[in-house]
Design brief:
The complex is a heterodimer. Chain A is an all-beta fold. Chain A contains no helices and twelve strands. Chain A is globular. Helix content of chain B is about 0%, strand content about 55%. Chain B contains no helices and eleven strands. In chain B, the strands form two sheets. In chain B, strands 2, 4, 5, 6, 9, 10 and 11 form a seven-stranded mixed sheet that branches. A four-stranded antiparallel sheet of chain B has the order 1-3-8-7, with no helix packed on it. Chain B starts with a strand and ends with a strand. Classes of the chains: A mainly beta, B mainly beta.
Chain lengths: ~110, ~110
């Protein structure tokens, strides 16, 4: 079945440092890929998405590129802020079929220190 | 535009009891999905409802059931609660034309003692 693997956390960075969170996936077809963010005590917020190979999703300074050849969708940000501290989830959704369920990775806790 | 809302926020039950969780979808969305998020884990898909019918189901036993109403709101029912059912239950809504772009509510934290 489909699966998503994220780099183990937690990740601790200083403010203005460069961020990379690795994500690889296994899917039978050509899924859409997502990054969600979860702040303490809240639900998930969609951060960015990409629907086909070589697409780049971007939002709030975060970027991720859909790499079909390496089945990866790594999240990057050039300069993190304290307010970026949260748990980040990589997810996929298979195209086709009526139910477009999301399959999530286990999450990566990011802490940014001032 | 009103986002996804869920009630209650927190709930404490004992083993063997039954629980009902509620979700109101975002304005304009007619599809609702439910997920279970255990502590420290990613959300796991329970099922999805579209036009008041179950549209897909994850690897959860039949004691997890749901409903969708004509106004697109939804309920998740869990019978014969087990300790392992303790989790954050998340509801997500989406439109029929963009079912993979799901918008999540804040969740209901269920504790089973």
């Amino acid at each position: 079945g489909d699966s998503v693997t994220q780099m183990e956390g937690p990740v601790t960075l200083s403010e203005e440092a460069f961020l990379t969170i690795n994500c690889t996936y296994t899917a039978t077809g050509y899924p859409s890929l997502f990054w969600y963010v979860q702040y303490p005590g809240e639900g998930l917020q969609l951060l960015l998405k990409a629907t086909k190979a070589d697409d780049k999703g971007s939002n709030k300074g975060f970027e991720a590129t859909y790499r079909k050849e390496t089945t990866s969708f790594h999240l990057e940000k050039g300069s993190v802020q304290v307010s970026d501290s949260a748990v980040y989830f990589c997810a996929l959704s298979e195209k086709g079929g009526s139910a477009r369920q999301l399959t999530f990775g286990s999450g990566t806790q990011l802490t940014v220190l001032p | 535009e009103t986002g996804v809302t869920q009630s209650p926020t927190h709930l404490i039950k004992t083993r063997g009891q039954q629980v009902t969780l509620r979700c109101s979808s975002q304005s304009g969305h007619n599809t609702v999905s439910w997920y279970q998020q255990a502590l420290g884990q990613g959300p796991q898909f329970i099922f999805q409802y579209y036009r008041e019918e179950e549209n897909g189901r994850g690897n959860f036993p039949p004691r997890f059931s749901g409903l969708q109403f004509p106004n697109y709101s939804s309920e998740l029912n869990v019978n014969a609660l087990e300790l392992d059912d303790s989790a954050l239950y998340l509801c997500a809504s989406s439109s029929a034309g963009a079912r993979d772009e799901q918008f999540f509510g804040p969740g209901t934290r269920l504790t089973v003692l």
